[in-house]
Design brief:
The structure is a homodimer of 341-residue chains. Chain A is elongated. In chain A, the strands form 3 sheets. In chain A, strands 2-1-3-4 form a 4-stranded parallel β-sheet, with helices on both faces. A 4-stranded parallel β-sheet of chain A has the order 6-5-7-8, with helices on both faces. A two-stranded antiparallel sheet of chain A has the order 9-10. Chain A is of the alpha/beta class. In chain A, helix 10 links the parallel strand 7 and strand 8. Chain A contains 11 helices and 10 strands. At the A-B interface, helix 4, helix 5, strand 2, helix 9 and helix 10 of A face helix 4, helix 5, strand 2, helix 9 and helix 10 of B. Strand 2 of chain A pairs antiparallel with strand 2 of chain B. The structure holds a DNA duplex (30 and 30 nucleotides).
Chain lengths: 341, 341
DNA sequence: TGGCATATAGTGAACGTTCACCTTTACCTT
DNA sequence: AAGGTAAAGGTGAACGTTCACTATATGCCA
């Protein structure tokens, strides 16, 4: 054993001080910035710290400074798929010198709101980023605790529309498909409890209207592949669409499978688009036209708002485009005989 | 405004005490268990807590008790895909009354080890679950800080093999394929920095040997679809395998695409298996035979080990099978002309 | 009625830091 | 050489809790 087995207690600042022959406050200054100290003093403390294996007790420090350097991200388990969002959030927080705590919640909005408040007031974190909407009635209770930023990304009932729900790629998809000659569309929607699903549906309908296209309907969906298969099965064979805007990649691959069931070729008879750029999309036959969402960027920017709210450093936001359409083999001109509608 | 805007400071235990007309210690007891107090006293404190909107300062409590109720999970960003693992870990920790902090790390093993130690000794967490291997030389420094559990799941250099690296499904896949008549196999490996990739490769080779099969080789890979495409391109057309064991689903879909490029039908000419049960697998043409890994269960059990180490409650471990083979359309008997090898 | 156990409540210190303020020393200015 | 100033370091309190004791009231028994 390298050192004799000392009492299990960790050394404190005072022990370091007495070993170095200075006051505890001098060690505190040393810890804070190493400035305003004589080189000789610095060296003595260095030695003492080394010898004792001293590490500051961040708990005690936090208690005194009322700063924890810790942020919390509250997210519903259903959102947990978006690991890349979390990844972006973590990276930004670390850059700003914060540590992130993940708290997953479940249950009603009221329960979740309570959990967020609890956390904000516990003194354990400087700020809370909630990826779940809060009960509006309760927000006035906030000021006493930590900063709370509610990200609209996973908004459940409010009007605000965040980056993640930005449906503008739907416009790009449809305009380009219309340029190729498509006139008759189908949308297989996502779970309408999600703001993003609602936004895509609304934009789909608006774009149909604006470009004077025809929609054979909006098939209900729940983000599942089955909903895609089912939507195609139910299509009236006398009035088949030539293009399908699916809510996401899984739905889209269901649509492709459904099309195959009915003997329709993709993209020969039917163009299909997805959303999310699942890593398999590139290798599907046909590879899937989809929308790549920069989840890392969205996560980063959400945390940046929070960091700003807790008075942290100003970091460079990610400012690229949120979503980007990636054109692949699953989209092509419509079949000749149906091109004109 | 519901209350007049009091000084921004949060109320303390002493203020509650004086409002309730008891000592601070009595309030502390109230907070701890509400037991051993007169009903009348209980009620008075209840009232005071309510009126002041008091919430205990967990920071201060932790400082005194030397317990934070907080665990940390350290994981390399590359592991971040495994959101479901995290999800299982979080759920278990919450069940045990802990909060989890996610710390992502990068860089060398030495750097990461340092980060884990730092965390363990900071006093900020009760325990650390490291999903990244630690430098062995340094483990003797641990006892002073929090409990550290190193999960072998993402093991990088050590011998121990955890649940996630369990390669036994490879055996099941190959035995069944051999039963169907397959004799000539190919393995497209994953990044050999990963224990799981190494384990699958070793098991593949062992099984080839044990069953007296023929292997046309182990193609190098990096978990990417391209590596799958490339592996098929390089095959000698005079000695094509009839079955491919791909390192994961992405690689497998690359293999399928590569096969198509060469005019090979899957599964008619070539059976292909993946790993991970990506949500798109069911809808691919052909749907992909794969291995579903219960990541939530693995995450749960890893955290359970940690909770046990920090002296937490004994929770029910998840004891189902870790991995399960899911047979789908991409596997079938080999073509007649090559069945016998 | 004295004595003792038990239930309930109070007192002051301690946890390991930083903050606010004070002291000492050295050097410069005039 | 007196006075002033800045640099370096020291002192004690404070952060909000819980711990280890101690004090008081109540009930029971001999």
């Amino acid at each position: 054993m390298p050192e004799n087995s000392a009492p299990t207690r960790r050394p404190t600042i005072k022990e370091v001080a007495s070993l170095a022959g200075v006051s505890h406050q001098t060690v505190s200054r040393y810890l804070k910035s190493r400035q305003g100290l004589l080189p000789a003093t610095l060296e003595r403390i260095d030695g003492a710290v080394e010898e004792l294996g001293y590490r500051p007790n961040l708990m005690a420090r936090s208690m005194r400074t009322r700063r924890t350097g810790r942020l919390a991200v509250v997210m519903p388990v259903t959102t947990f798929n978006h690991a890349r969002l979390l990844s972006g959030a973590l990276a930004a927080a670390h850059e700003a010198g914060h540590v992130v705590e993940i708290v997953s919640v479940d249950g009603s909005t009221a329960t979740r709101t309570e959990r967020v408040l609890e956390l904000a007031q516990s003194g354990q974190v400087d700020g809370v980023l909630s990826l779940t909407p809060m009960a509006a009635s309760i927000e006035h209770r906030l000021p006493k605790g930590a900063a709370v930023v509610v990200s609209p990304e996973f908004d459940d009932a409010m009007r605000s529309v965040g980056d993640l729900t930005d449906p503008s790629p739907v416009i790009e998809l449809m305009e380009r498909l219309a340029d190729l000659g498509h006139r008759r569309f189908l949308h297989v929607a996502g779970d309408q409890d999600f703001a993003s699903a609602r936004a895509r549906k609304v934009t789909y309908l608006e774009t149909i209207e604006r470009l004077g296209l025809e929609s054979v309907g909006v098939a209900p969906g729940d983000w599942s592949g089955e909903s895609g298969v089912e939507a195609v099965r139910r299509l009236d064979s006398h009035r088949l669409p030539t293009a399908v805007i699916a809510a996401n990649d899984v739905v889209a691959s269901g649509v492709v499978r459904g099309a195959r069931e009915r003997g329709l070729d993709v993209p020969g008879d039917l163009s299909v688009t997805g959303w999310d750029d699942n890593e398999l999309c590139r290798f599907l036959p046909p590879s899937l036209t989809t929308v790549r969402v920069n989840l890392e960027g969205v996560g980063r920017n959400a945390v940046l708002r929070l960091i700003k709210a807790v008075g942290g450093p100003e970091l460079e936001p990610w400012s690229g485009s949120v979503a980007q359409v990636i054109w692949r083999e699953s989209t092509a001109p419509p079949p000749r005989d149906r091109a004109a509608g």
